[in-house]
């Protein structure tokens, strides 16, 4: 029929109603359940934000204690799960391992496959939030040939994650509070972003009634693309390629000649600035300052930002730095290799994905997602046997 709305890239289609995240792209506003992102990033903790996204409210002290208990209860992986990692090549990208490992959770937690039971939906949400740091740290440890470190439940979410990543081989490793705070803030900044490509993927996968481990694995696969979560790795590789401030003008000319894009710039929704990028830039300066790191790439990034913000090409197209522009330099200073950047995004976004999945599942008007198309292929014609084809 010709009654369909043709909207490739879904630039003007609202695919659902949601109470979780509000974005005003023209004003540069991002709210989670009504709370501004900068307040959450400055004052809250990631686990508190997880409770907020998943349950709709910031927790009371009692609720928080219970929530923290529920999450830490699920941080361990089944012993057999560890042998699953051994099947991957050492040089596998950790995102490839993540996609496989998260999908495989369904083979270990069959009870969570009963999506119609609200208790099981809650347990699978807790399992995913709890196990992602353990899986992500194992993907990292495996790729660098180090033994796995078990989770420690007396530590905070971010402290525990950093310990699983960095306490081997430095046996005397103690969590640096600056790094722990930065990690937690980076997780908060990535926690949810309404109907972006990976979240829409999770909702579409879940609309068929698929179980949450499959849906989140689909989200991780989508996130890996360079236009989406893969941009943080690409942005840092771009800064490395530019190398020094003198090389910027020639690089910017290449962008204008449309040879490549300026990674870490532009956003489908933000046409003013990305409020997450502001917090990220501040965090980047704090981390480098407090660690006493003098990274020449920060100078390149700052100069590139200055040029891009004053050049008519970028102004006309409303291209501002997005969250990925400064996250890479920060993560590098913290000791993460570039191929782990998108994994950290996936870890943090898991709470957003599962909150959106849960909201979709519990919506009584839920329908299977089934877009239509405008057919542009051949009109009807008759089959010809092989010997009669020209
Ligand atoms: N560098 C140079 N030019 C750009 C860029 C960029 N990063 N982004 C968009 N443009 C240009 C584009 O070429 C087009 O120009 P023209 O009108 O002359 O054809 C114009 O700006 C409009 O671009 P668009 O492709 O219609 O914009 P979009 O809304 O479809 O794309 C985007 C949004 C994020 C995919 C894109 O800006 C991009 O590829 N950016 C780089 C990758 C990146 O940093 N992604 C992370 C996004 S934030 C984290 C996340 O949520 O995943």
Detailed description of the structure:
The protein is an all-alpha fold and 390 residues long. The chain has a domain at 16-71 and 175-364: Cytochrome p450-Terp, domain 2 (Orthogonal Bundle), CATH 1.10.230.10. It is 55% helix and 3% strand. It has a three-stranded antiparallel β-sheet with strand order 1-2-3. Helix 8 packs antiparallel against helix 13. The model has no long low-confidence stretch (mean pLDDT 94). The protein binds carboxymethyl coenzyme *A. Residues 193, 196, 227-229, 231, 255, 261-268, 317, 319, 322-324 line the site of carboxymethyl coenzyme *A (CMC). Carboxymethyl coenzyme *A binds at residues 193, 196, 227-229, 231, 255, 261-268, 317, 319, 322-324. It catalyses: oxaloacetate + acetyl-CoA + H2O = citrate + CoA + H(+). It holds the Pfam family Citrate_synt.
Task: State the total count of DSSP E strands.
Answer: 3
Strand content: under 5%
**Over all CA atoms, what is the radius of gyration?**
22 Å
| Ions, cofactors and other bound molecules | carboxymethyl coenzyme *A
Brief sketch in words of this structure:
With 390 residues, the chain is mainly α. The chain is built from 17 helices and 3 strands.
Give the SSE map:
Blueprint: E1 21-24, E2 29-32, E3 35-36, H1 37-43, H2 46-55, H3 61-72, H4 79-86, H5 94-108, H6 118-143, H7 157-166, H8 177-190, H9 197-206, H10 212-223, H11 231-242, H12 248-256, H13 275-291, H14 296-310, H15 312-316, H16 323-333, H17 341-361
Antiparallel strand pairs: 1-2, 2-3
Helix pairs in contact: 1-8, 2-17, 5-6, 5-10, 6-7, 6-17, 7-8, 8-13, 8-16, 8-17, 9-10, 9-17, 10-17, 11-16, 13-16
Residues 193, 196, 227-229, 231, 255, 261-268, 317, 319, 322-324 line the site of carboxymethyl coenzyme *A.
């Amino acid at each position: 029929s010709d009654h369909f709305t043709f909207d490739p890239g879904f630039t003007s289609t609202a695919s659902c109603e949601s109470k979780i995240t509000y974005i005003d792209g023209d004003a540069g506003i991002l709210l989670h359940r009504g709370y501004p992102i900068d307040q959450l990033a400055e004052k809250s903790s990631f686990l508190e934000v997880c409770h907020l996204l998943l349950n709709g409210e910031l927790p009371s002290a009692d609720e928080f204690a219970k929530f923290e208990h529920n999450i830490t209860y699920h941080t361990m992986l089944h012993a057999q799960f560890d042998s699953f990692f051994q099947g991957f090549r050492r040089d596998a990208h950790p995102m490839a391992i993540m996609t496989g490992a998260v999908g495989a959770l369904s083979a270990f937690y069959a009870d969570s496959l009963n999506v119609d039971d609200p208790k099981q939906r809650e347990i699978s949400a807790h399992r995913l939030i709890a196990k992602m740091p353990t899986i992500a740290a194992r993907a990292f440890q495996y790729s660098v040939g180090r033994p796995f470190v078990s989770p420690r439940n007396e530590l905070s979410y971010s402290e525990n994650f950093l310990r699983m990543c960095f306490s081997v081989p430095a046996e005397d490793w103690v969590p640096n509070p600056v790094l722990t705070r930065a990690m937690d803030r980076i997780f908060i900044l990535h926690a949810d972003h309404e109907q972006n490509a990976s979240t829409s993927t999770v909702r579409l996968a879940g609309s068929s009634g698929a179980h949450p481990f499959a849906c989140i694995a689909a989200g991780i696969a989508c996130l890996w693309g360079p236009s989406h979560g893969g941009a943080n790795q690409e942005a840092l590789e771009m800064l490395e390629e530019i190398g020094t401030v003198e090389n910027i003008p020639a690089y910017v000319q290449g962008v204008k000649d449309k040879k490549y894009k300026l990674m870490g710039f532009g956003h489908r929704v933000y046409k003013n600035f990305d409020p997450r990028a502001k917090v990220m830039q501040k965090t980047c300066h704090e981390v480098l300052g407090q660690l006493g790191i003098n990274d020449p790439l920060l100078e390149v990034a700052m100069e590139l930002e200055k040029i891009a913000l004053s050049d008519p090409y970028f102004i006309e197209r409303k291209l501002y730095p997005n969250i990925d522009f400064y996250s890479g330099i920060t993560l590098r200073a913290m000791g993460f290799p570039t191929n782990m950047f998108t994994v950290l995004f996936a870890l943090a976004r898991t709470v957003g994905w599962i909150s959106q999945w849960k909201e979709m599942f519990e919506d009584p008007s839920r329908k299977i997602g089934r877009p239509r198309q405008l057919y542009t292929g051949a009109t009807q014609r008759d089959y010809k046997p092989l010997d009669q084809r020209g």
